Each structure stands twice: as structure tokens, then as C-alpha cells.
Amino acid sequence: MKPRNVRGCLLNPVLMITCFEVCRGSNRFGRKEFSQFEVFLISNTLFNIWIKYKPRLPEWYYNEKLLKVGDSLAQIKFRALQERNVCIYQMICSRDRNLQNQESLQTCFNVLSSLRLTMQVALPQENLCWLIYNGTIHIYTICRHLMMIGQSAKVLEYLLWASICMESSIPLLSVHYLTWRATLYTAVSQCYFDCQASIHGEIFARRGLIKIDELKQLENTSSSLENSETKRVFREATLKMSVMIFKRAVYESRRKPKSFFRPKLRVSLKEGQNLPWPRTTTERLLTEMFDGVAAQFLAILEALSDSSRRVLHPAPPVPDEIEIRDVISELFFAGLEILSGNNILLIKEYIETKYTSESYFLDMIRVSGDAAVKFIKLAFSYEEWDVFHSAIEFVVNFLQAQDDPTWKKAEMELKLLTLMQPLLFPRKFKLKYEKGLFTLENFETVYVWSVYIHTCFYKYIVFSFQNIQPDKEILVDVLMFLWQRCKTGLQRIQMNKSSSLKMRICIYTLNTLCSHMPVSKYLLAFSQ
To answer: Name one GO biological process term (predicted).
Structure first.
């Protein structure tokens, strides 16, 4: 009996044996590991099969199958090129995590260009949408790293390309990929804000909001039933875009023309703290744009965030305009009201719209602990001391009540800010005793990471971290501050021609500080 297919048609024996040999040769690629020579042998075997059966096969069938083989090999090559670029990036990071070497930086941009070229070739083919999706992830990961070291202006074009690719690939326009697409939109807007082009950041965010709304209307038209997961995805994507719009709108709505005369008088917000919400213009805008205190608090954090600021380099807002200062004060005023209402939720993640694509906040009426800690750091950075002192009290109490050791890092960072405040502003604040982290006057010792050393100072400082490493940026700034103090002491010793013992003590102090700070790559600044 002759073999037949499922339709009852006779099967061509030549086609059967050809398919059998091709499948047997292709299955060898299923192994996880194989040498370069084995790959060469397998490839040659496959091509020899097609050469062997070419005279016996119909021309149309041969060409069709040969094209499919070529497509498969092209996909393998594209994926290999992408993974090669990722490996190059990982190798660079292993040698130079902060990309301080100019050569490392240039290599990262070369990797981004290579990824973009690969995606450009694959973009016209819908069946290669997975390659486009993976490429956007790789581009975003590298760009996120570069944004954190101040390279937003250079990575903007690559993030724009990734966003447009997601829009140009029809399979990637579905609701399933909307969360990731919104993350790319947010990253582009953040790049514009980092480049001091806030108007373009807002325009791009509004464009993203329009795209999200178009997809929502299409989804409503095609399906009468909208499940909870789809609603959550649209709500999260809309929130991300709304936050970036609010980031500029909250300031621009209050700006006055330069020719407009306004007396330099600031209204005291304390007078209205007992009034019902919304109490200020900023709070009314928050209420109009966002539902729930968690979304409002996220918008406040993003409006206050500035990539050019460092926590331990506190300074007034720039530009120094009355309207801008009023808005910032109102933002802190609103944030403090939200925190003081027992709205802190014990979760470690919240949507940080600059860099993450994490899940939507878990509770619409609570604020995450990480968000509360970031709010206090921002208050310190903007010299909003009333807000800082009010918020840190109940946030630290909240953190101390938690048994999870992961919260000890946040608690230590806040205590470190409390310690550094009187050292940075000795005329405004007096040194106070605090259990576990404190300073005292009229002593000549420094206690650093459980190391007890004598110094030439007339104060001593306690940093008892107990194997908990605070934020590296804060550690670097603390170290640089102590270095400046030691530098002054060394100069005084040299000028007074004091004994070499004090000189050795100061050098020993610096050496101990450096050996216990896990930031040795930053110590080149000491030569300045």
C-alpha cells in the first residue's frame, strides 16, 4: 500500500526521504553545546542534502524549502549578533562598572549602534518581531545604565528608535506589550528632561498617551469584555505618561511672563495645614490628574526628581524663581500630608518611571516604604528642613518596627542624613546625640565601621554600619566631606610645623576610612 497524507493523497517518496534527512540533520542543532567544527559539519550536511536531491525535486518546491532554510539561518545569525553585543556589554561592565574609561563608553555606543542595525534589517519581517522585542530590551538596559552616569543626550536617539520599532511591528502593538512600550516612552521623556528640554519631554509623553488611548479604543471595539488584567495594563501605562506630563505642567502652569511684576512675598503653607484637601493649587492639579494617594505621591516624587542633584549636596531649586519655589514647597507640603496619614505600605518596589518597568503599585491607597525614603532624601536635597524633620520621625519609626533586614539599609541612610545635617550646616543645626549613630564634641576620636582611631580633630563621628552598606553615592559624598576636613587639618599641621605624630595620625585616619569604604574607584579625587 502506497503512503498517503491526511487528505488521502499519495506521497512522493523523494519528498519523504528528503524531509526525513533534513529533519534529522536539523535536530542536531537542538544540543545545548557544540563546537565550532561541529556547527560547520552540520551546516555542510544540510546543504549537501539539498544539493543531492535538487535534480529529483520540483523547482518550486526546492526554492521554497531553500528559502525557509535561509530564513532560519538568518534568524540564528541575527540572534547570535544580538547576544554577542550583550556579551560585549557585560564584559565591559565587569571591568568598568561605572564606565569611567572613555574607551568603555565608546564600546557601549558601538554596541547600541550594532543592535540598532540588526533591528533595522529585521523590522520589515513580522515573523522576526521577537528579535525586535529582544533588541528593545537590550537597548533599554544599556541606555538605562548610561542615563545614570549622565549620558542621556547621547542615548536619546537609541531609545527613540526602540520606541518607534515597537510601534512599527504589528505583533508588538497588542495589549500584551503595552506595559513595555509605555516604559520606553517614559525613558524617552526622561531623557528630554535630563537634557533640560522639558517641553519635548511633555510633548512626547502626550504623544504616548494618545497612542495608548488609540489602542484602548481599538480594544474596546474588538472586544466587548474587558478583563481586570487589561484594565490594569491600561491604567499603569496611562499613569506613567500622566506622571511625565505632570512633571512639567505643575511648574509651567504657574510661571509668569518676565515682564510680569510680582512682589517677592511667599505665603506660609503652615497657615493652611489644617484645611481640607486640596489646599493649594498644586494639590488641586494632583487631584484632577490622579486617583489615589499612591499615584499622587509618585507624581510628586517625579516632579521633584532631578538627575543633576546629589543628596548630600543640598541647594535651593534652580532657577531661583518665586513661582518655582512656591511649587516645590507645595509639592513637599502635599507629600508630607500623604505620608502623615499612615499611608506607608511595606513593599520594596514602586514605579520609578525613569528606569523601571516594574508592576503597578500594589495598593492604590498606600505609599511604598522606598518611596517614603526617597521623599525624605529629596527634602534634604532641597533644604526643606521642616518637611525633612517632620517626615523622618515617623518614617524611621516605621522602618525600625520592621523585622526585615532589607529595611535596615534605608534606616541607616536616613540616620546618616541626620548626622551629616549639622556637619554641613553647623550654623543652623547643633550636634545631637542619637543612639547608634551620633557625634559628640571635645573628643579626639573617630569610630568608623567598628574601627577606633585617634585623630587631630576636636570632634568624633560614629559610623557603625554593622555590615550594612548604604547608598554608594551617599558614601562617596561622606568620604569626600571627611577628606576635606582631613585636608584642612593636614594643612594646619604643616603650617604650624607640628610634630610628625599628628601627621601620621591623620594619614592613618584617611587610610582607615578608604579601606572600609567600598568605593575605592572614586578615591582618585583625593589627588585634587
So the answer is: cilium assembly
